[in-house]
Amino acid sequence: MNTGDFNLIPSQILKKIKDTLKTKGVRNLRGLGRAFKYVAPSKAGRKLDKTEFYSSLRAYGVEISRSEGETLLEHLDLHQDGLINLDAFFQGLWGTPNATRQKVIDEAFWKFDPERIGVINQHELRVAFDSSSHPKVLNGELCSDEVFIQFLQAFGDKHGDGSITKTEWDDYYSAVSSEIESDDLFILLLKQCWRLQ
């Protein structure tokens, strides 16, 4: 056992995981959410058992010690039922967008779900999605449709129906938010992407 593990707190372990994932690029940070979702998609309440949690981390090259794992597992087992609460994990990993950012994240989602059902589909999104300023579109590497398909895949469209829930939307933009320091830049990107006023 590493003697440095004794005083670790959950936020330090989450930072270590996040730093490891960042070395692999932001797509893996978002992709980690998809990996967890695919391991146990039918579990209610977005929870995983200890084995599923570890295997998902290892799939992304994240190595934590046994004592780090036990500390984190205890912290994330909110109901003391032996299951990891993924919402708590993602919030700790990505942080929560501040109120200014969350307002624009919500505004973009509700634009496509005015009845506030909590689900939007790809046809509703495609009408408004603007990838014209995306770097890969500008350099000719991808066309607008390919960028849109990649965007949908980032949500882990397991059933291929293009439906995105509010929770998936918030998770995605929490990850994006964690990579952009400037509130003004984050808001500008969302407003341009979704043609918000």
Structural write-up:
GO terms for molecular function: calcium ion binding. This is EF-hand domain-containing protein. Keywords: Calcium, Metal-binding, Repeat. Helix 2 packs antiparallel against helix 10 and helix 6 runs antiparallel to helix 10. The chain is mainly alpha-helical and 197 residues long. The N terminus is likely disordered. The protein starts with 9 loop residues before the first helix and ends with a helix. It folds into 2 domains: 92 residues, EF-hand (Recoverin, domain 1), CATH 1.10.238; 96 residues, Orthogonal Bundle (Recoverin, domain 1). The chain is built from 11 helices and 4 strands; from the N terminus they run ααβααβααβαααβαα. The longest helix is centred in the first third of the chain and has 14 residues.
SSE pattern: HHEHHEHHEHHHEHH
Oligomer: single chain
The span between the termini is: 55 Å
User: What is the CATH superfamily classification of the largest domain?
Assistant: EF-hand
Strand neighbour order, sheet with most strands: 1-2
Largest sheet: 2 strands, antiparallel
Strand content: 5-15%
* CATH topology-level fold name of the largest domain: Recoverin, domain 1
Strand runs, count = 4
The CATH architecture category of the largest domain equals Orthogonal Bundle
What is the CATH C-level name of the largest domain? Answer: Mainly Alpha
Figure out the total of helices.
Answer: 11
Task: Please outline the helices and strands.
Elements (H helix, E strand, L loop, with lengths): L9 H13 L3 H14 L7 E3 H10 L6 H11 L6 E3 H9 L4 H14 L6 E2 L1 H7 L6 H4 L5 H10 L10 E2 H13 L4 H12 L3
